[in-house]
């Protein structure tokens, strides 16, 4: 069963310290790299990552951290991280568009399957979209390395950004595995009616899962925007 996200998720620990946030980031990183990762765990990962960004935002809004961020040396690092965060926002936008297109393709696949027609065209379209997203994230992930920095807030932002890119890339990989060409291209010709109904049920579940991912990415995008606003406000003090 797909995990349904709540759009108004609140931080699990509003006063999280740096060690606690680092522990959450490490745990999330392990989940992403696990070969057992699924769409459900990815949806949960998006929610947790949004919570982490909220914790980081609270840390950067602390008076002592705001003073630190405004220092000359730290300001350079903060401005660099602000620039890199734009890349992540662009990736979130790209993922939202991909998810919307994938959902539409799944809906078309359902209609074709019900009519008993050849599904090759829709399956190829789905695979093409998922592969395109996968290549995009691999390309971007090589360009967003961070410099070492003494600011704990900037360091946590950099770690969260790198994990965000990894999570979005992992999402595209998992989505690609949901439909296999040999299985689906001839499904309407080779399966009995009961089997076709089973495949329809799986496609509906995939559609719901993609909707969950859409909600997760949207929540993450909003938290990223909030982080940028808070960081810009800190620099303007």
UniProtKB/TrEMBL annotation:
One GO term of the biological process aspect: root development
- Region (Disordered) spans which residues? 1-24
Which portions of the chain have biased composition (kind: Low complexity)? 1-17
Identification of the protein by name: DUF241 domain-containing protein
What lineage is this protein's organism placed in? Answer: Eukaryota, Viridiplantae, Streptophyta, Embryophyta, Tracheophyta
